[in-house]
Amino acid sequence: MTSRSGNRRKRDKTRSPRTTAKAAPPKARQAKKPTPNLEKSADTGSATRRLPRPDGVLPEEALPLILEVAGNADYALLDSGDGLKLERYGPYRVVRPEGQALWRPALPQSEWEAADAIFTGDTDEEGMGRWRFPKAALGETWPMKHDGINFLGRFTSFRHVGVFPEQATHWRHMAESIESAGRPVRVLNLFGYTGIASLVAARAGAEVTHVDASKKAVGWARENQLMAGLEDKPIRWIVEDAMKFVEREGRRGNQYDIILLDPPAFGRGPKGEVWQLFEGLPSMVAGCRDILSDKPLAMVLTAYSIRASFYAIHALMRERMAGMGGRVESGELIIREDETVGAGRAISTSLFSRWVAA
């Protein structure tokens, strides 16, 4: 995550990307957005991936792009190894599983034993039952910050803690785009979870629509809005299946300047709708392209826990954004160990692909 003050101006650390200069002609961005000719799946009722290929020149591309998050006062990856990671969230040290940590820990065992919370996963109990607290029993929530925005960290039964620090690079890019637009900006945050991205966008001056299928997650997000003191900011909180919401917004003619997509590999909507990433993502990206405004700023897709390369979602994003101009940037989000205490190794947390306007 970014620090609360001066570090906000630091640029993301990236590997030098390969770029191509396939610029669209001046009128390419005004190309008519294709209306997907979708078929319905008998199993899920959602649109399948039989979509017409959009016309128009493909956007420029930049890849691989490695966006890195380093430690700060709000969050740090302290050490990792033996399938685990040791993190600091605010005042607490937390140990959670990390399958990519194939190496040995660099810090002594005593540093790991000083953890305040350890995810064990040894029961099927909901809530905090899958956590162990070696020092003292902790509450379900605790106060956290991201770049000066207060919110609640939370010990969940599925090992998450209410925030994904690696997303900070996307949040910074989004906030800068909103602040520099010089006009009102509408942001759609799909699969919005506990709403940190929505709060970042609202603080930057955007009108935000936050959508998640989980009533509990949206409730947490609303709590975070109060915690952040941003209750006067224009945020619509919506509990709905993301695909159905996008389809309805298309029918209504509603449009957005920035769209964030952070879909799970598998999920269910509030009415039992089934989401499977590889089946639903092509239609989701096509639907989101269709509700971008006439002067869009960005569309950002992040994918976790999937057996695919970022090249796959890069090709999908670039194809769907044909005729829009701009550039598609794709790669990985990584978190680097705090080099002042650890070995400075990096853990890749997710794949991403984002389209940005020229």
Automatic annotation (TrEMBL):
<protein>
    <submittedName>
        <fullName>Class I SAM-dependent rRNA methyltransferase</fullName>
    </submittedName>
</protein>
<dbReference type="InterPro" id="IPR029063">
    <property type="entry name" value="SAM-dependent_MTases_sf"/>
</dbReference>
<dbReference type="InterPro" id="IPR013780">
    <property type="entry name" value="Glyco_hydro_b"/>
</dbReference>
<dbReference type="GO" id="GO:0008168">
    <property type="term" value="F:methyltransferase activity"/>
</dbReference>
<feature type="compositionally biased region" description="Low complexity">
    <location>
        <begin position="17"/>
        <end position="36"/>
    </location>
</feature>
<feature type="compositionally biased region" description="Basic residues">
    <location>
        <begin position="1"/>
        <end position="13"/>
    </location>
</feature>
<keyword id="KW-0489">Methyltransferase</keyword>
<dbReference type="GO" id="GO:0032259">
    <property type="term" value="P:methylation"/>
</dbReference>
<keyword id="KW-0808">Transferase</keyword>
<dbReference type="Pfam" id="PF03602">
    <property type="entry name" value="Cons_hypoth95"/>
</dbReference>
<feature type="region of interest" description="Disordered">
    <location>
        <begin position="1"/>
        <end position="56"/>
    </location>
</feature>
